[in-house]
Records
---
Amino acid sequence: MHHLRILTKLLSCLCLPLIILCACDRGGAPSSPSPSSSPPRDGVGQRLGIDVTAQPGRSKTQVSAERPRIVAFGNSLTAGLGVALDESYPAQLQRKLDAAGYPYRVVNAGVSGDTSAGGIRRVSWVLNSKPSIVILELGGNDGLRGLSLQETKANLERIIQQLQNASVTVVLAGMKLPPNYGKEYTSGFEALYHALAKQYHLTLIPFFLDGVATSSSLNQADGIHPTGEGYRLIVEKVFLALEPLLERDR
């Protein structure tokens, strides 16, 4: 019952209305521009994201152009709700890539509360980043709301198709629901990620929160969102899935 309550709270709070859109380049660079050439702003008009990519004698444009991009595309679990920006999984993934010698720039395109339908509306913005790889972590909020599995799958399918049509490699992050949603629904929900991965030949992370979701020591005081350490463990598994797709010399 304790694990069930934690899982239920975890999924229910993915809908909190916080937006974090930034990039992580050795500590955090801004996300790529929206079609209007201005990055998204939060509710009080503050421009989100900081740029630390500049180096003496080199323009920001030159530095950014030299690093192929990985876009982390998801909800609050990608945005890093409740932790410092440098503890979010995209930021920690950036540091791990840097340490391993992979010349990629990670863009955090996480929006708290986002659904698969919301993700469709953001695909063009994601593509403006000209990513080589997109880690797609969406669908959890659909399951929480009890939306049609066919609808969720169709939305994710549209996102995957648009990304692949732009020659982007997609890594799909799976999600699970607590058992109180019913065996048929929870089984079908988990299975849709496997079906999409098989249909579109995607690298699949079977459960994004594997080993973290039910651990009180790896989640914040709300028992919902991972701590920095929780995200570190998530990054270990994300990296294992991601590394076979990476090139050292770009």
Note: DSSP finds nine helices and six strands in the chain.
---
Amino acid sequence: MSLTRYLIVLLLTLGLSACASFGRGVAQAFLDKQEAEDTRVCQVWGRPFTGISPYLGDRYGKMKVLMVHGVGDHLPGYSTEFLEKLAKQLGLNALSKRHKNIALTSRQDAGKPLGNLRVSRLADTDRTLELLFYELTWSSITAEQKKMLAYDNSGEHAFRRAEINDLMKQFSNSTGPDPILYLGDSQEEILVSFAQAFCWMAKSDWGDLPNEVSQTCSFNDKSVPEHLQKDHFAFVAHSLGSRIVIDGMQRIAGLVKERNLDFQTALKAKEIPVYMLSNQLPMLQLGSKPPEVSNQHAAYCQPDGAKYSQRIVSKTPIVAFSDPNDLLSYAIPQGFAETYLDSRLCIDVANVNINIASVFDVFGLGKLANPLEAHVGYSSDDRVVALIARGIGHQNTARLVKERCEWIETID
């Protein structure tokens, strides 16, 4: 039984203590009826976007997707459910018989572990469509520092809490410290981990990737600009992962600005969409300075702009998914990207307001949705996966999205 159902049944049982069995029966029937209807909202505001499906059949380049997790402790393989749903939506029914794993480390300190990069190869039956999927697991970087709170999850303290509160406290202890650590000493290591993951994605095809090794990647390798020119790239990020992607791309561009002209030239021609699940950019901007370059979108992103040659990429379309009942998620408000995100990324925003967790009417006592489910359930939601796979606003849009999502096109 989900936490939402548990809470509702608990309330009903307390209110109908004199007729407990009757109350449970009514509650179960009521819940089943509401779940069967599935009236969860899905609204999309923005320009049309294609998703990743149009690029799978490119004869000259590969479609490559990098997933970056957010707060909490993760193990390699955390993206499996999302990947399987994505494969089904894209018609990719062939999977590499093994995953390739690279233990990431820093070029400056080869003995410093910076997480794991797991790569999977997917294709259709005829091998005419292909996807390379990269899963970054960086949480080991902050795990050691979070051990400071381990005592709070021990029997010495846990038994003193109510069961539901204890579950929520464990969730808080696992996830709460990560934004604090990211804004502190761990940020550089996490961004290096992201940079290494992106480097491997940009550098190699499946056959060239190493496996079960600890090895660094260099953007100065001549194969990087070659693959950047022909391949297609996208990021899928959850919660804090959204900030990591934006900060990571700015950091990469700054590091190689003067050392690798071929890399810079190739990157400036790319359009790299970012699908942000449980977007947290507004909250994570609190206490941080605006970027060095802001409020100059036209100058950097229009072909006739005075600083067009100094852009980082051609375009960064952001599709920000947020459940209004997710306590850690925020839509990107109008003007936020222009003021608080680097103008050189040429960002264009689409917002998706979507109920991940079902909303229940508790017999007139009010409406309730499980905030934990609302935060962690994006990657398993079929509508989210279909939007990432096939976009919205064109003929290739998935039937599920056409039937279940409302699209409001934004215009200048």
Note: The CA atoms of residues 204 and 237 lie 22 Å apart.
---
Amino acid sequence: MQQNPNNIRPWLYVLGISAAALAGATLLLSFLDSQTPAGKPQDLQPQVAALTVTPHVPDWVEFCGARIDLERYNRHEGFDREIASFTYQHSATLLLFKRANRIFPIIEPILKQYDIPDDFKYLAVIESQLNPKANSPARAVGLWQFVETTAREYGLRITSTVDERCDIAKSTVAACRYLRAAYDKYGDWLSVASSYNGGMGRISSASRYQGGQNSLDLWLVEETSRYPYRIMAIKQIFENPYRYGFLIRPFDLYKPIRTRSVEVKSDISDLPAFARAQGITYADLKRFNPWLRDRRLLTAGRKYQLLIPDPADMSYDQPNTYVHDPRWVAN
């Protein structure tokens, strides 16, 4: 099929490749080919499949409604590191878009309900890669990566059969409570973001000791220093995927699957049998209720809502057509 030149131009713009640069690349390939010794196997000849270009670092970005200046050297270089990392970790970044098509519709209304800026959904992206069962070496669990003590402090229940850190909606509520408490303390969303990784005590102590600077300019451990830049960088890519080389089509995204809710008030001694009675597999019951920790459910007098997926939505015989954010897909 003949290539449409109009489809090439956006990529040249994105990569900042001029006609002269392309000509130079062609000459380089010709030169490398001419230097290949006679008789050298074809698969060992130098080849260049694509040009690798550092993504552009803007002078500023917007985060939580505020303009964040990136011209200071540490900010420019901090953002540069993260935008390049997400841009060229192609398979991992593509997976984030696919999962977001399911997860964002759940967490965005909760953030709005608790008056938390929508940009904090990107915090969940970098915390867990939008995996509700993510588990870190530090024993942080779930979409928002709560350790057990903090999870309990913000209202999540953890027992031998239940771990609400893996409940998408309930853990998002707990995260909102933390974020709101941090904002009441700092009055600044960037400091809130840094505190989610470093802890409120550490950020407050560093700010006092170092003269109350902006959290981006504090001397912190490397992981915490990188944290807000990672959030801002992945936001840039989510809002401008094509600019960073990601071509996404609606059918590439994971299709949302409708569920019905079954209220449970008493113990379930055999969850596989419960699943069969609901017309689904035990594996599907666990996938749609990742907070279940065991083959049984002990309620201790509490009510739980078990989500049962709709069999009509559980196949890709009909490709996904739902796109949560129109900016994700190429026109």
Note: The first helix runs from residue 5 to 15.
